[in-house]
Amino acid sequence: MISRRGFIKGGGLALFGIGLGGIPGFVVDAVANTVNSPLYKKRKILVCIFQRGAMDGLMAVTPFTDDFLKAARPSLFMTAAKGASNEKPLIDLDGKFGLHPAMAAFEPMFREKRLSIVHGIGSPNNTRSHFDAQDFMESGTPFKKGTTSGWLNRAVGLLGHEATTPFQGVSLTSSLPRSFYGENPAVAIKNLADFNIQLRGNAAGAKMASKSFEDLYDQTSSDLLKHTGKESFEAIKMLQKTDVKNYKPENNVVYPTSALGNSLKQIAQLIKMDVGMEIAFAESGGWDTHFNQGKDSGVFARNVNDLSTSMMAFWNDLAKYQDEVTVMTMTEFGRTVAQNGTGGTDHGRGSCNFILGNSVNGGLVHGLVNPLAKENLEDGRDLAVTTDFRSVFSEVADVHLGIANDKVLFPDFDGKKIGVMKS
Amino acid sequence: MKSNIRNFYWCAILFICAIMCSSFVRGIGFANKLAMPYKKAGLTTEQAAAHLLSRFTYGAQPGQVKEITKMGIDKWLKNQLEGDLKDDELNLLLAKYDAINFTNTQVDETFPRAPSIRRFAIDQGYINKDSVSTGNRKHEREGLEAYMKTKGYRPQQELFRQFFSQKILRAAYSNNQFREIMTDFWFNHFNVALNKPQCAAYVPAYERDVIRPNVFGNFEKLLMKTAKSPAMLLYLDNFTSSGTNMPMSDRTMEMMVNQTPEQKRKANERLARTKKAAQNKKQGGLNENYAREVMELHTLGVDGGYTQSDVTQAAKILTGWSIGPIGQIGYGAAAKKTLERIGEQKMTEQGYVIEGDFMFAINRHDNSEKTVLGRKFPAGGGYEEGVELLKMLAEHPSTAKFISKKIATRFVNDVPPASLVDKMAKSFTASKGDIKSVIITMVNAPEFWTEEALREKTKSPFELAISAVRSLNAQIDRPYELYSWINKMGQQMYYYQAPTGFPDNGQYWINTGSLLNRMNFGLALASQRIPGISLNLPALNNNMEPESAEAALLTYSKLIIPERDLAQTIARLKPMLNDPNLQQKVAKAAEKSNADKQNNNINSMNMEMEKPDKFKLGNGKKANENPVIKQQAGNATMLAQVVGVIIGSPEFQRK
Q1: ipTM attached to this prediction
Q2: Residue B634 domain flag
Q3: What are the domain boundaries of chain A?
Q4: Could you say which architecture CATH assigns to the domain A38-191+254-409?
Q5: Is A286 on the interface with B (CB under 8 A)?
Q6: Which has the higher per-residue pLDDT, B110 or B302?
Q7: Which long-range CB contacts under 8 A does B453-457 form with residues at least 24 apart?
Q8: pLDDT tens-digit readout, A391-422
Q9: Contact between B133 and A298 using a beta-carbon 8 Å cutoff
Q10: A/B interface, count of CB pairs below 8 Å
Q11: Domain membership of residue B486 as a residue range
């Protein structure tokens, strides 16, 4: 249990120090401008974004030729036809589906076949409670509440090699999300700059205390405290090598100042610092649009704009790492086909998700969306779930992270794949 | 000779029988006498006292080891197991939190859920619909505020803040420490979470009425109370669970004999609607969540010997266990309407059971025959079969073992010895689930006092924070500040999403991020950088100022971590404290930090409900000018630093 955390035993940290600290700035810059020859074997990185609140998949990626949808959403339906009104039209992806105009940032990725979309994705459990649906999606067991671990934590355990770093699984949240519950190491960090021994206004004191703590934890008889202590101080040193507060993204990228933008920026920093992160988790909120969700502008448009521009800032910032990184979004369920009485939509079933990366089977809207006639709807009202979220999550994890044991990742799942990744 | 031996055996057997009988006869209540074998384990009474305090309180207060040794540790533990010592000082502190005493009805009437308030406010024109889509947050906020003021509604977050605050204050200051520890234990065992908005508002009353009064009593009673609580019914969805065959149809027809044609027509419509709703839901609206978790997590344990069929059958038994008529809005509204329409007497005649906030809704109950764990429940069992089911689960041998192991894990070791768990399980069964008896069996066992038990548990972040406050006699004026720190250290109180509750092992609590925050917490607390938490370090040492950093270390480590071998800790810290430049460095830091702290205090004074803290130390400017004050400030900073390191040290993380 402890041994697998043998962190930088072989002097990796010292090397790291030379690589980024002890040599002149211009050399550092030169090094930073090429992808470092990694200290660890180069690993793939999966970044998951949970859109809490249930995204309206039918507005994000609209089956715009569907007249049933048009009829069900008199004041929300948008068209791909240009110049039909003052509104910005949908971005026609394939003659059937239209991308919301506020997500224009995604279009080039889709055209380059690096973005794939799965429509009609959702849980086999038809709960329409946010809490339950998120719980099931994050535990990965849609019919079992008592599962102690989350699927991303199990994924960490299935990576198949020793954890060499405390940053193998990182959540950019203040406490660990359900997805990361479990026995494998995962750490929640809301703000990288806080990862240090701190005593506000008393830097000298903090430094002294830090030394004291390092010594104390080094001698303690509790293995757990001793090893975690060591790991913590080594982690601090790793993060202190770079100026996390004054981070400058590459390629003139500007991240949105939103919570998601900020999280993805910090994930990019961790990737560039080469701290051995393999699975990262971030959140995006505000998707529970019961009231006036708007069309080409408004609440929903702002949300999808933030999502797409944050993800694209991240992607472009990491230009040199794109082969290593896959980003996947998820949301607990979709929303009703018909709009409600307050210009919004209520809790539904199927939604859609986005997968960005060089190894995705991109440029396609995967999954199945039948004509939205009442008889095709789940419980007579919602976009039917035609693709089990576990199918997509496990395929992405399998192909990108090289995880083979789906029975552990998603117990009780039949293992069917739909080809969202290049095989 | 032979007959002597035979006689002896007879006597022995009779004696054993007598003991066994007496324990059966006495059954519930104090089945056992306290006989803690700590001396056999080679411990002094002081060491035993320190161990008891580490397990059954949120940490020893200065001098408390001596105090309870003097009083007698048996007597102390007995008092704790009764758990009804006077708590006047605490109650005074709690007096400013009005909502913690609210009934669920009052909570519903005062703290509706935010989306409901927003919807009402939009419906009633307090918020312009268009502003929602244009994102005019200011207008929306003002509209909401105006609406809430008119209606007397308050934001739910306020209820939760008060709830967190009471938890922290009780843990820090209650004289009935063990009751608070057990409240925490059982709450976590029967976990519900504020993450689930449906149940969140009912969680404070759940802890107060369902858990706290019953923590030392009978397990079956506790189980029954949780099963009927709105918080649990909503958290694990049983409140919606309904059966396929509605037994009410015929009986409703009979009831309709004396109705007017209009009433009959309405009742018929209602019946048709119900039937249709049942048909639409393929499974007849059966929800297995609670039935599964009550077996897996609350009673038998995952390996307790039940099958999927048992889960489904138990779920059927529990259909109709639902929320009672709590109030006009919220989840009890439907029951309230039914009650107003039909009247309690008629409902009771029909087979409904209304008990406080709980209601057994017979119209949603599955009336068929069921079999759980081999036991048949004949058709038409109604409410009683649910009671019988829970009783059966509570008395099951798997439950005795599962609960005993969980208690032993909490109080002895992350991996408690099987021999101890067996003893406790026997006691559980013999006493018919008397929790007090199980605890007494535990402390009477040698396993409780071994090397593997002493200081082998890791404090949770909550325990760390509270034990630090207690060990320093700190004054908490703003409990929420502590709550935030506990959250930062990796324990978001009342927000553990899964019904398992927080895992009870050191491995879960200790990881890189959380460990650093524990150290930072120690430093922040000792240097009084947590707003609203004040302490007087010199007072702990009778206002005697330690002569040197080393003296401070020796004195305060003993005060804070009593009866523990601290030689290693001290040896490691000494060289650093003997750094000749230390005093200078510290004094310099003190100047800066005092000036800085005042800014800090001013910045953080705007919290509502909680009074701002006072300025405790001299200000930075004077310290710059006056050499004496400068020296004193330097010493104070040095002392704070030493204490901060002790709080953040590995020894203090263990209990």
Answers
A1: 0.80
A2: yes
A3: 38-191+254-409
A4: 3-Layer(aba) Sandwich (3.40)
A5: no
A6: B110
A7: B453/B51, B453/B412, B453/B413, B454/B51, B455/B54, B455/B564, B455/B651, B455/B654, B455/B655, B456/B412, B456/B413, B456/B414, B456/B654, B457/B55, B457/B411, B457/B412, B457/B413, B457/B414, B457/B506, B457/B654, B457/B655
A8: 999 999 999 999 988 899 999 998 899 999 99
A9: yes
A10: 201
A11: 461-653
